[in-house]
């Protein structure tokens, strides 16, 4: 089954084609991502209306480009998957409208995909993929969550951030130290030159039970350290290293606790912060020490992309799940409400997308 995936939840336009007839990484026939970073840089953050308009301009050319790279025509597609939420409502509607139009025109099924489920399942596209049960760390600019994955589509929230997501804390910390937008990757690169231990910041909420996160206080500690420093380039790098070490340690401590609570030794890590080199090394070391493993998507598939949507959608389409005919999105969508992915029934099932309604 060849499935076109469309991702437009925020400021990246992502398109991919996944073929379920191939295994592992070979199933991804082609994918492309257009980033709007330059568009939003002068505003220091994503402007929703501008994001929606840019998706309108870029999406169809990107679909044509991706199909050409896969050596396919639209008539070769067996299904279409699109991000139906969570995300910016205008941006989501662009992708949903294009996806539903293609599905109607081609008379193929379509399915709305939960954005965070796409991230969660991205490591399963790689060779030697993990199998449930496992614990997933979803860590990005908008989310920091620990999820017990008992089966695909059967998720139990173990903990989440009470304020800033880890990626958001990276971006805001970088901004207060004068780094350009988007600040998170800039800060991580700067931390490579920092002196370990010169600045040691607290590891938030690790001295109490539970699996929730909080990064706003850490951000405040960094702001105070930067304000009271000489603000030299060397000090900026040392503070960046201290901040990154604090976030990595906090995530690793909570992940190990989550593995203990869930009673398993496999950790799946996904989301933009999952590309962080130091975080990957720390979590791999922790998992190996326990006799388990930590699984990541390739770095290019950590950030928002169409490949994860094509893959997650293909799993649900093969199970007979379909989205309702209406073009509808859900900007706020609890992943725990998703139906489990089971073997396809005799008649196609519905419910793999948001419930129809006015938008």
TrEMBL record:
Its main location: cytoplasm. It is found in: Cytoplasm. The keyword Heme does not apply. InterPro entries: ATPase_NBD, Gcp-like_dom, KAE1/TsaD, Peptidase_M22_CS, TsaD. Its cofactor is Fe(2+). Keywords: Acyltransferase, Cytoplasm, Iron, Metal-binding, Transferase, tRNA processing. Its EC number is 2.3.1.234. SUPFAM superfamilies: Actin-like ATPase domain. Required for the formation of a threonylcarbamoyl group on adenosine at position 37 (t(6)A37) in tRNAs that read codons beginning with adenine. Is involved in the transfer of the threonylcarbamoyl moiety of threonylcarbamoyl-AMP (TC-AMP) to the N6 group of A37, together with TsaE and TsaB. TsaD likely plays a direct catalytic role in this reaction. This is tRNA N6-adenosine threonylcarbamoyltransferase. The gene is tsaD.
